[in-house]
# Entry
Amino acid sequence: MTLSSRLAFGIGWLAVAGLMLSNGTLAAEGMSAGATSEAASPLVELALAYEHGEGVPTNQLKAAALYCEAARRGDAEAQYSLGWMYANGRGVARDDVVAASLLALAAEAGHPAALRALQFVGDERGRLPHCMLPDEPVVSAQEDPFADLPPDKQKIAQLVTALAPAYAVAPRLALAVIAVESNFDPKARSHKDARGLMQLIPATATRFRVRNSFDIRDNLHGGLAYLRWLLSYYRGEVALAAAAYNAGEGVVDRYHGIPPYPETRSYVQRVLILFGSNRHPYDPALAASPAFVTSK
# Structure
């Protein structure tokens, strides 16, 4: 089956009123997930070939593995196709929770059919196939990555070093977050309207009583307060706190860990390398932690 014919299948699949079988599967035997575009990644093209036996022997297991690697890299078509395989038990054991999680990722990325497909796999989410879980963060401590900052950034670093202990946050962790968030630019503003040194979005600024996110001290007070709260909430796990700082604690909680977003995984790695550890002291009384953290 070619990628273009796969698109036709996807459109037809969503239009069929009898889409669900009596056992709850998403589609009839042999029907396939839809494509988002003709420009599929090489991994997705190869997965399609193995899924449908185009020039190679049909191998559903290999197709699922290839889709999973592409999905791990953020390919929405692969996330959708693998979600379809989990929803139907094709090449993998059927798992509606995994299917819903994958389809939700594809929908977030703008896949045209994923949102419609979600209604057929239930609302429970938060579990991904093992192959999509992020690798254990690699921590490579440096002597002092902030020792040779230029004068303007060094002045900010000195202020951070003075303020951070009042929030029980290691200055080096605060500096790591600032370096990755804004590269020490107090006027930085992202496309998501995150502002200032520690890139506070308006909701976070309001939550931590920040009046002016472009004011250096005000921004630092809000960002340090948020870091302190995240460290308590995730019981001192820096990787989870950093992931939540980047993507939001709701996303981390939904995936029970670092979400499979390339941007967030890269963000966490950079913070850990600059900080040099995945553990940080925390105040357990400040926030109740989620069940997936307390059960570890």
The first helix runs from residue 3 to 15. Residues 3-132 form a domain with the Serine Threonine Protein Phosphatase 5, Tetratricopeptide repeat fold (CATH 1.25.40.10).
